[in-house]
């Protein structure tokens, strides 16, 4: 069942009903100011950090769902409605929401009155612009009242929801004409404020939520709107809001536009005031002047569209499959950029109040966006590395505002260090910028402990090399990629965090998954060492990698698939010997991606076992059989009901690993089959089952043991975005950056046909024309570069050359 459709020409998803299974959201912003907005105008805004600089409130766990946003109430006689349907839920004569790249449009009609709302964050200004257009399509004049509404958060989103004994006494505002300034705590330690304004005279205002809503009412029926008269209230403590009333007269056929701005401003700490207790408004005035007229807003919107057009032009494919084109050219890359900006911190599912930027998460996200903005990838790598500890281990997350590591969910996740090598290797292949390895980078954010980025990589590898268990496999620590496989936790107390309880170090528990990472990224580290002339380090790394390869064959193979781990008692996890949890997805993917077992014939066995034991029509499950009881030695993974999350759910994040592994052994049909099962565009027609947005990936889909098999959760902010783009662009379509240039080695399904691909790389544009006359799944016979046949499948880089025309002959 569809609730909308793709508009590929405009790069939009068009939602045709407000009654989607869940709020279907979009992200506005590309630099520091961000907003989330749903298809009914719900959502919130923040500056840099969704926890520490939250500008507007959003209510999680609320009824009805998706409560609070930027709302525009239209009172037309006795009818009160909103362009996005919420919060009044008045039945509309027409409704449409168009989510685009960095913007959303809403169209509503009621009783001959049309309202069009455009919401976006401009490329270079810390504000959200809402342009509202009202048009009278009836044959009679209309006298209407328009009421805006936003509810301010008192900055720290966690404190805002908990510290009521203080917060209900701190709210402060200033009202100057059509502008409402939120200045809570500005008198003391803050030098920032927000504001909400409109480019028209107002007939009234409210800044007190209680006065605007009325006693016992919600935002679905504010008394001020019902009576058609603002209270002109001035918030003092309690709940500050911003609402303006504008009375509008529209002749038949007439339309009027209004520009509303929600902005964030900072002043120097020693220059905060215009007068006693009067904030300095110069930064706000500059923003208001910049977007005072509709033509200025239109220019900013055109700039935003040009920004995205330029970004997405860096990778473009044209194939016979519209789903591949749509996801590769638009939505997958867009989601990769959103995960780069947000990591896992701010969404409808993750409130932004706890998690910051993930160390592992941000390193993986970089794999999907490094080709788009390599200069920001460079900056992100240095930010991540600066939170690393001196021994090579890492904080598991850091706050985007302070760029300081935090221990909210612990440390000691022993896969973290290797992901830094993965990120840097991807950056070096993309850019050839080896100078980054000489950058001085702090440890634990202390510059007095700084060392080169290369030294950070060396310590990452050394941490893994020196933390091995009795089977010579890497120690798992608190957990590896699967945060819920807690082999050193042993928690019996309800409410304890599995990620902070028990030792982060264990002398025995080992991870076969990290072993696969160790081989793959250890090889990358050895290659980096060689390329910068550090032969001794390369020799040490390569010897350790070779030993790990053999350790996996000796102790990590279970007969038909790779083991998952050894627990703290050195008992097997993910073995046919286990009662439950006999086979896991992660090592089957990553060990084969690393090349382990390929020449020995084990890779095919493992992947056949995945298909036989883990596959479903909605994707590949994390493990089977599901855990039906709580296992003290395994931790959180066994705490979920069967089929949900880590307990045999379908984790979209690691489905691409299996698809990539299939391309390693040349099975394009199977690789593409896996890709299609979780790809949003292919499964749009089961949105009533899937429930999350049909234009972006979700983290998890309920497995076959679950009551609602096929239902998705946690959309948008997931490593699925980056890994699926790597899978599609590099493994399936086959264009891979390498240290020496772009290589191409497609692995496609039978019947896929010829395709063309445009790729920006190191200042040049590559035009690939892939020919597959014999309909093979994999195999490049030869390349022609600018009409000349070349050996191998790498297009060598030539200094100063700006265009390459490459014909790829598969056979």
TrEMBL record:
Among CDD domains, the record links this protein to:
GH94N_CBP_like
Give the matching Gene3D superfamilies.
1.50.10.10, Glycoside hydrolase, family 65, N-terminal domain, Maltose phosphorylase, domain 3, mpn423 like domain
- Please state every residue range assigned to the domain named Glycosyl hydrolase 94 supersandwich: 11-277
Entry keyword annotation includes Transferase: yes
Glycosyl hydrolase 94 catalytic domain mapped to chain residues: 307-734
Q: Which InterPro entries match?
A: 6-hairpin_glycosidase_sf, 6hp_glycosidase-like_sf, Gal_mutarotase_sf_dom, GH65_N, GH94_catalytic, GH94_Enzymes, GH94N_CBP, Glyco_hydrolase_94_b-supersand
Task: Identify the domain of life.
Answer: Bacteria
Q: Which UniProt keywords apply?
A: Glycosyltransferase, Transferase
Can you name one GO molecular function term for this protein?
A: transferase activity
Q: Which Pfam families match?
A: GH94_b-supersand (PF06165), Glyco_hydro_94 (PF17167)
Protein's name according to its UniProt entry:
Glycosyl transferase
């Amino acid at each position: 069942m569809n609730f909308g459709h793709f508009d590929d020409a405009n790069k939009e998803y068009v939602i045709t009903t407000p009654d989607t299974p869940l709020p279907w959201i979009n992200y506005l912003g590309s630099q520091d100011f961000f907003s989330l907005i749903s298809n009914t105008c719900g959502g919130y805004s923040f500056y840099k950090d969704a926890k520490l600089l939250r500008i507007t409130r959003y209510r999680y766990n609320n009824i009805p769902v998706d409560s609070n946003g930027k709302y525009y109430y239209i009172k037309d006689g006795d009818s009160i409605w909103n362009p996005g349907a919420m919060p009044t839920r008045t039945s509309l004569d027409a409704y449409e929401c168009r989510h685009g790249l960095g913007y959303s449009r809403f169209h509503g009609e009621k009783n001959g009155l049309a309202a069009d709302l455009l919401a976006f964050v401009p490329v270079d200004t810390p504000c959200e612009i809402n342009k509202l257009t009202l048009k009278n399509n009836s044959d009679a004049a209309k006298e209407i009242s328009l009421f805006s509404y936003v509810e301010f958060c008192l900055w720290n989103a966690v404190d805002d929801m908990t510290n009521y004994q203080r917060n209900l006494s701190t709210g402060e505002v200033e009202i100057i004409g059509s502008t409402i300034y939120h200045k809570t705590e500005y008198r003391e330690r803050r030098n920032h404020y927000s504001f909400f304004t409109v480019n028209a005279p107002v007939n009234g205002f409210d800044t007190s939520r209680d006065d605007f809503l009325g006693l016992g009412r919600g935002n679905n029926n504010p008394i001020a709107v019902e009576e058609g008269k603002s209270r002109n209230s001035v918030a003092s403590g309690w709940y500050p809001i911003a609402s303006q009333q504008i009375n509008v007269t529209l002749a038949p056929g007439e339309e009027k536009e209004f520009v509303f701005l929600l902005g964030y401003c900072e002043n120097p700490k020693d220059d905060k005031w215009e007068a006693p207790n009067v904030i300095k408004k110069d930064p706000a005035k500059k923003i208001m002047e910049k977007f005072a007229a509709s033509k200025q807003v239109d220019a900013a919107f055109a700039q935003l569209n040009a920004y995205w057009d330029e970004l997405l032009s860096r990778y473009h494919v044209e194939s016979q499959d519209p789903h591949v084109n749509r996801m590769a050219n638009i939505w997958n890359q867009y989601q990769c950029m959103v995960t780069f900006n947000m990591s896992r911190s701010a969404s409808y599912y993750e409130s932004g109040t706890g998690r910051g930027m993930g160390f592992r998460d941000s390193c993986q996200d970089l794999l999907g966006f490094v080709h788009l903005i390599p200069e920001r990838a460079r900056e992100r790598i240095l930010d991540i590395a600066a939170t690393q500890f001196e021994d090579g281990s890492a904080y598991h997350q850091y706050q985007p505002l302070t760029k300081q590591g935090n221990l909210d969910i612990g440390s000691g996740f022993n896969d973290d260090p290797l992901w830094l090598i993965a990120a840097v290797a991807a950056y070096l292949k993309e850019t050839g910028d080896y100078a980054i390895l000489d950058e001085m980078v702090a440890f634990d954010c202390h510059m007095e402990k700084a060392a080169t980025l290369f030294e950070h990589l060396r310590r990452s590898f050394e941490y893994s090399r020196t933390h091995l268990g009795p089977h010579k496999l890497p120690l798992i620590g608190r957990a590896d990629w699967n945060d819920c496989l807690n082999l050193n936790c042993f928690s019996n107390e309800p409410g304890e965090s599995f990620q902070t309880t028990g030792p982060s170090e264990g002398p025995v528990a080992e991870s076969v998954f990290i072993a696969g990472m160790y081989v793959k990224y250890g090889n990358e580290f050895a290659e980096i060492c060689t390329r910068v002339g550090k032969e001794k380090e390369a020799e040490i790394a390569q010897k350790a990698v070779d030993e790990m390869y053999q350790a996996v064959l000796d102790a990590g193979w279970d007969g038909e698939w790779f083991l998952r781990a050894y627990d703290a008692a050195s008992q097997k996890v993910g073995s046919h010997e286990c009662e439950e949890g006999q086979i896991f997805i992660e090592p089957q993917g990553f060990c084969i991606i690393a090349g382990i077992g390929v020449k020995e014939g084990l890779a095919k066995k493992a992947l056949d076992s995945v298909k036989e034991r883990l596959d479903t029509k909605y994707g590949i499950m994390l493990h089977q059989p599901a855990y039906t009881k709580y296992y003290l030695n395994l931790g959180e993974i066994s705490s979920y009901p069967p089929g949900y999350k880590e307990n045999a759910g379908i984790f979209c994040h690691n489905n691409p690993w299996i698809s990539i592994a299939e391309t390693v052994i040349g099975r394009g049909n199977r690789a593409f089959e896996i890709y299609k099962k979780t790809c949003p565009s292919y499964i749009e027609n089961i949105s009533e089952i899937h429930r999350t947005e049909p234009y972006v990936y979700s983290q998890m889909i309920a497995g076959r043991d679950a009551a609602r098999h096929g239902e998705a959760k946690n959309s948008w902010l997931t490593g699925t975005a980056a890994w699926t783009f790597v899978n599609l662009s590099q493994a399936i379509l086959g264009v891979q950056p390498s240290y020496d240039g772009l290589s191409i080695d497609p692995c496609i399904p039978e019947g896929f046909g010829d395709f063309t691909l445009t790729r920006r790389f190191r200042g040049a544009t590559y035009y690939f024309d892939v020919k597959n006359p014999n309909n093979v799944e994999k195999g490049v016979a030869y390349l022609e570069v600018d009409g000349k046949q070349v050996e191998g499948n790498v297009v060598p880089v030539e200094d100063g050359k700006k265009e390459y025309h490459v014909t790829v002959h598969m056979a």
